[in-house]
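note to self: dont lose this again. the chain is below, predicted strucutre after it. 228 aa total, dont forget to put it in the shared folder this time
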Amino acid sequence: MTFRPYPVLTLIMVPALALLLALGAWQVQRMTWKQSELAAYELARQAPAADLDAAVCRPEPLRGTPLRFAPEDEGARVRIAGVDTSNRPGWRVFTLAAAPACLEAEFVLVERAFDPLRDNGGAPDFVSAWRADEPMMPGAFTPPGDEGTRDFYAYDRAGIAAALEIEPEALAADWWVARDDGEPPAHLAQTPPERHLAYAVTWFFMALALIGVWLAFNISRGRISLRR
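---
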């Protein structure tokens, strides 16, 4: 039996294999997390509509709970990039409302309208139904917001508070009042769990292909052999 694989080729192959396996495992984790989140939103959809205090101050609050909500005066507004129910890109328009006492904050953001980008045309679409939801937090590649124009690309608590001229602690950290269109949030719905599974299978097959290429090359050169 011979086992003398090329060392340089092996040194290149091992980290590449580890990366492919890690990417596959990450997609599996994303799939299971997203399945859990979608199940939680479906459970919340079945709950009766509640006022904001009852929705977020219960022992086990459900994100996505439909709200009985009466908007207050709009006041100053901020815009957060997003998509509408037709998947058109644009700006989600938010203003402040009084927060429930259990949040230990004075204000919570409330979605009031969707303003499509100029290239998409159309007038702003005003919100008429709401749910208690989790803010869309920034990711590793989320661009910074602009406090001057009050335009943001995710829920930047400190930046939004500064743009609205309030203290960051006065703005609820983990909740906002979002449009309720009967569908899960876009960050869950746009890439369903089945697609994450397909991505995972792709990464794992690439890992198998890499092992196959490494074995085939070393076997063809006599560096790996089962013969004595």
